[in-house]
């Protein structure tokens, strides 16, 4: 299968020039990080959840599981259903 470039040559040059000059297009230098907040168990009705804030990006994700036996005659078999919902705020 032929390799498909992820970035054009101009985009690659822009990225490399920014790294070499220690500058990002949002004004931060290459070692400056955006503020990060990660909180878990933020949705009480989910089996697992988290809230992530990274700079101006906010993401909330919840995961639920449901376990059930499919047939009483086959106690070693059953069903697991997982649901993952995410929201970009």
TrEMBL record:
It is found in: Cytoplasm; Nucleus, Nucleolus. It comes from Rotaria magnacalcarata. Residues 33-84 form the Exoribonuclease phosphorolytic domain. SUPFAM superfamilies: Ribosomal protein S5 domain 2-like. One of its GO terms (molecular function) is mRNA 3'-UTR AU-rich region binding. The keyword Magnesium does not apply. This is Ribosomal RNA-processing protein 42. Belongs to the RNase PH family. Keywords: Cytoplasm, Exosome. The keyword Cytoplasm applies. GO terms for cellular component: cytoplasmic exosome (RNase complex); nuclear exosome (RNase complex); nucleolus. Gene3D superfamilies: GHMP Kinase, N-terminal domain (3.30.230.70). InterPro entries: ExoRNase_PH_dom1 (IPR001247), Exosome_comp_Rrp42_subfam (IPR050590), PNPase/RNase_PH_dom_sf (IPR027408), Ribosomal_Su5_D2-typ_SF (IPR020568). Its main location: cytoplasm. It comes from the Eukaryota. GO terms for biological process: exonucleolytic trimming to generate mature 3'-end of 5.8S rRNA from tricistronic rRNA transcript (SSU-rRNA, 5.8S rRNA, LSU-rRNA); nuclear mRNA surveillance; nuclear polyadenylation-dependent rRNA catabolic process; rRNA catabolic process; TRAMP-dependent tRNA surveillance pathway; U1 snRNA 3'-end processing; U4 snRNA 3'-end processing; U5 snRNA 3'-end processing.
């Amino acid at each position: 299968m032929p390799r498909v470039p992820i970035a054009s040559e101009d985009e690659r040059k822009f990225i490399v020039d920014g790294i070499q000059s220690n500058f990002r297009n949002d004004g931060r230098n290459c070692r400056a990080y955006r503020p990060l907040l990660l909180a878990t168990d933020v949705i009480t009705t989910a089996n697992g959840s988290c809230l992530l804030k990274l700079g101006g990006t906010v993401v909330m994700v919840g995961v639920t599981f449901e376990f059930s036996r499919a047939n009483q005659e086959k106690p070693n078999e059953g069903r697991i259903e997982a649901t993952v919902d995410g929201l970009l705020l």
